[in-house]
Amino acid sequence: MLGINRKLQELEDNGILIKVGLVGAGQMGRGMVSQIENMVGMRVVITADIQIENVVHAYTKSGVADADIIKTDNPDEAAEAVRNGKVVATTDAQLVTSLTEVDVVVDATGVPDIGAKIAWDAILNKKHIVMLNVEADVTIGPLLKKMADASGVVYTGTAGDEPGAIMELYDFADALGFEVVALGKGKNNPLNLDANPDTAAEEAARKGASAKMLASFQDGTKTMVEMTAVANATGFLPDKPGMNGFVSDVKGLPEIFKLKEDGGQVGNKKIVEYINGIAPGVFAIVASEKDEVNHEMQYLSMGEGPNYVLYRPYHLTSLETPISIARAFIYNEATIAPWKGLQAETVTVAKTDLDEGQFLDSIGGFTVYGSILSAAEAKEQNALPMGLVDRNVQLKRAIKKGEIISYDDVVQTKESTIWRLRRMQDDTFAVKTAKPNPVKA
């Protein structure tokens, strides 16, 4: 199998481009467009955003000339532009997923319901779909993967995001026959369950980031979602609800992941975890029962055993997404997908005392945060998946701070794509989770 760089060069030499359609021209989308403009064998031929100037900005910053950017929502005009070597800026996401000239669709919106619709439409149009939207993936990924498999296309998460980077370590270690003890990531800020856009505003302004996005990292929701994606791909589970959140440097990880009865700090093997102190890296803890393997690992300065750490000190987020695009198109392979089905769930927890009749907001907001449970625990508690939370979800009773919110506690006042697909997912698979409530009359 040729390396992706050589395979892309081969495509370029043969006059072939992987034609990419992007939805979402925010920070992640802009970076990806610029990265792909540096590459051979691939181009982002159409991008959609609710603000068309965001698309134009993404293309001009990547070096595309103004004259080569065609603004249109018309399918015929868009198709002609792509055939003529131009790029298309549009406000219509469905144009991206339906355009014949597009080979691979990328969702970079970060909004679970929008991502659900993009993925569904892409699969129905028999296009590979790359999800930068982990929140949508952990909510309805098993269904989307099943539909993609049936349609002969690839459903995948992205290289560069922590779940994809962790999966690369797991695949490497598992292929070599190591026992994989734990998988995890660094968290680059202390856990603050009370974080919200107001408390995050000052730091967000300094970093030029969204306060809501920063709050979703600080309150742990993003970390819980990312490790839920890893759980659904590998079958590994949290050691306890919410994970442990140990503090360590890389050198200390092998000792931490010994079982408690062996002097370590965990109760189980095959777990997902996050660590304060090693961000932005990801890791796999591996072991072997073979004396010769342990001797070689010690000779190679990998530690004294029985656990060893494989550590990757970086992940380049959407700048690595082109690798997943190429793998899907060239090799028909996913970087990461929910191969094990729904193994874990990021459930909804009250961030503060909430009143009966109050509407929830969304990830990184003022009302709720996410916490990882096993799927069995989530089902037992009828817990509401965090990916279903939006401003159309209303509380039927008062909820105390720190309490898990269940399906029974809420009513949906407006139907959405992700709720419909979640009901379909629950009906499709043998191990059912709680069904969402019907729409409020």
From TrEMBL:
Pfam families: DRL_cat, NAD_binding_3. It comes from the Bacteria. Residues 345-411 form the SAF domain. GO terms for molecular function: NADP binding; oxidoreductase activity. PANTHER family: SAF DOMAIN PROTEIN (PTHR37850:SF2), STRU PROTEIN (PTHR37850). This is NAD(P)-dependent oxidoreductase.
